[in-house]
Amino acid sequence: MKKMLLLSIGDIKNIQREPLLIFSLFGILLLTTVIRFGLPELHTIFLSYTSFPLQPHFRIIVSLALLMAPLMIGMLYGFIILDERDEGVLLFYAVTPITKTGYLFARILAPIIVTFIISFAAVLIQGLIVWDVITFLPVAILLALQSPVVTLLLASLASNKVEGLALTKVINLMLLAPLLDYVISHPIIKITAIFPIYWPVKVFSESDSGNYWWNLLTGFVITLIWLIFLERMFRKRME
């Protein structure tokens, strides 16, 4: 545990050197604040000039905003790994008491914890959707598990930070998965459910339906399959 703490202290120093990384860490809280005060006003404006009400869609909008937490934090830790790879630090950790397994565990656990905390902070700030702790706790865990998916995607597929920046644009497109399913009712769109990032939105936006626990279980299974696959890919990359 002491070794994990030392790694985390090093991460804080890395984040402090990059203002963009700090913004990515707190951007989700800023976004949910804007949603809390801006979305009702936007709803009023829409009703004034069109017949399209935004209020029935508040839940999906808040769900997508919550999804920004694992995306941003996962990318943050992904870039930390890419930095360490460029500097040759990964090889150093492999021959220290931390070992490759300890390093990988720390890099998976840290974004999970940070995302879990920020997800709760974000859902408290948003103030538009009624929620309770018992219902949101599993959703927060599922959201938190998306962070290491994003982190391992970056670390496994990108060779350096330049490739990582290009890959983030592709990863951001995964936000379209739950949105397409919400907007389009065609059965073929259900293929987006293969992406783990689809399921936290599905569960939170339909938490009042009778499929809550089924969606939650499916989301956990798909996310764990992705994590196992990406973890093995990352280990091969480390070797």
From TrEMBL:
Descriptive protein name: Fluoroquinolone transport system permease protein
Membrane-spanning segments: 20-39, 59-82, 103-129, 135-158, 179-199, 211-230
Entry keyword Cell inner membrane: no
Entry keyword Transmembrane: yes
Keywords from the named record: Membrane, Transmembrane, Transmembrane helix
Tree of life domain: Bacteria
